UniProtKB/TrEMBL annotation:
Coiled coil: none annotated. The chain crosses the membrane at residues 172-194, 223-253, 265-286, 295-314, 320-339, 351-374. It is a multi-pass membrane protein. Residues 21-369 form the ABC-2 type transporter transmembrane domain. This is ABC transporter permease. Keywords: Membrane, Transmembrane, Transmembrane helix. InterPro entries: ABC2_TM. It is found in: Membrane.
Length: 401
């Protein structure tokens, strides 16, 4: 069994696609979008939520409570004493102050240009509530500071069976990103495999190629070549995405991150080999590009429904029975097992079982797909039925080569 023709076909497919404008432009567009997203994140991170508030009259007593309440609302607050109401309102109109607080400290008058910022409004409410509470307690002989100390020492003591994972969120994000990228590659490059098969049938190029190689070698070469193209784009876009996430402080590199990335890549290769073979076999059933969608639709709808259902199950309960079973089924293992591995909810036994089942299923799909491909790829004219394609040899008909 010679693999040299397979490697030559894979190299041809890889080179022709990578040098094509669609691949280059598509990758550059996504990289530009990621760059723009990183710039927006950087701008938002540097643009802290800040406010300047003027206080005047009895409301000066709110200075301390305002400063203590602001951090809880994510607000960086500067309190500025104003000599009188007129000067403070003039500062608000000029844009030097976001608000002027005056009058009674428990029920002040807040002057703003249009309406207060939500965080600022919550801060003022919290401050006035604290002042009113302290006044009420003091009037009944209760020390507010002593009450606060007693409340601070109270509360439940939570004991967890498992220590919380501070990186669970980023692990889930990586797993879901891997599932989405695989789904995207299946839809894009799987369809490209099928279209390439149809193009060669329509142009009769496949007849020349098959005079030198066997059908299974041509099929495997296409899957490997286009799989390498998809993997290259996955690495480029995934690397750029990780760089953006790292710059934004969303991801922190560690051993778990590296193992998650390796898992995503391994399952990507398995998943692409499986689905690309299915798409190639489906594409070999027709001879015209306009008929391609009719044979690809059942596969794409099947993958889409599984992805939507599994995505929701995974985000709802990654330990649930439904997502566990789905992640063990070979058609969906490459999509969801990496995410469960990243979350640490997939036991080693389940991972090994899913891997073995996927390998066995992929081998079966390759054998079956190779048979369909061999029986259909030289048939032109009317669409080849699945029964004929699965037969030992498809009968000749008028209009065939």
């Amino acid at each position: 069994m010679s693999l040299r023709p397979v490697l030559l076909i894979a190299r041809r497919e890889f080179a022709s696609r990578v040098r094509g404008k669609a691949f280059v432009v598509g990758t550059l567009v996504v990289l530009v979008l990621l760059g723009a997203y990183a710039a927006v994140l950087a701008t938002l991170a540097s643009d802290d939520d800040t406010a300047r508030v003027g206080v005047t009259g009895p409301a000066v007593a709110l200075t301390g409570p305002l400063e203590r309440a602001a951090p809880a609302q994510g607000l960086t607050l500067t309190v500025v004493p104003e000599p009188d109401v007129a000067a403070g309102e003039a500062a608000v109109r000029a844009g030097d102050l976001d608000a002027l607080v005056g009058g009674d400290a428990a029920r002040p008058r807040v002057f703003v240009e249009s309406e207060p910022d939500a965080a600022l409004e919550r801060t003022i409410v919290a401050a006035t509530t604290a002042v009113a509470r302290d006044a009420y307690l003091a009037g009944r002989g209760v020390d507010p500071a002593a009450l606060d100390a007693a409340v601070a020492e109270s509360g439940p003591v939570v004991v967890a069976a498992e220590a919380p994972d501070p990186q669970a969120g980023q692990r889930l994000g990586l797993g879901l990103a891997g599932a989405f990228l695989l789904f995207f590659s299946i839809q894009s490059y799987g369809a490209m495999v099928a279209q390439g098969v149809v193009e060669e049938k329509a142009s009769r190029v496949v007849e020349i190629v098959l005079s030198s190689v066997r059908p299974w070698q041509l099929l495997l070469g296409k899957v490997l070549g286009l799989g390498a193209v998809g993997l290259l784009q996955l690495v480029v876009l995934g690397g750029a995405g990780l760089a953006v996430a790292g710059a934004a402080g969303v991801l922190v590199a560690d051993v778990g991150l590296v193992s998650t990335l390796v898992s995503v890549l391994v399952w990507y290769l398995l998943g692409f080999a499986l689905y690309a073979t299915v798409f190639a076999a489906a594409g070999s059933l027709v001879s015209r590009q306009e008929d391609t969608q009719s044979v690809l639709s059942p596969v794409t709808i099947f993958v889409l429904l599984g992805f939507v259902v599994g995505f929701n199950l995974l985000t709802y309960d990654a330990r649930g029975t439904a997502i566990t079973v789905l992640s063990l089924l070979p058609p969906f293992s490459p999509l969801f097992m990496p995410a469960r591995i990243a979350l640490g909810v997939a036991p080693v036994g389940q991972v090994v079982l899913a891997f073995v089942l996927t390998i066995a299923f992929t081998a079966g799909v390759l054998a079956l797909g190779g048979r369909i491909y061999a029986n259909s790829v030289l048939r032109t004219g009317a669409r080849v039925s699945l029964r004929e394609a699965l037969g030992r040899r498809a009968p000749e008909r008028a209009g065939d080569r």
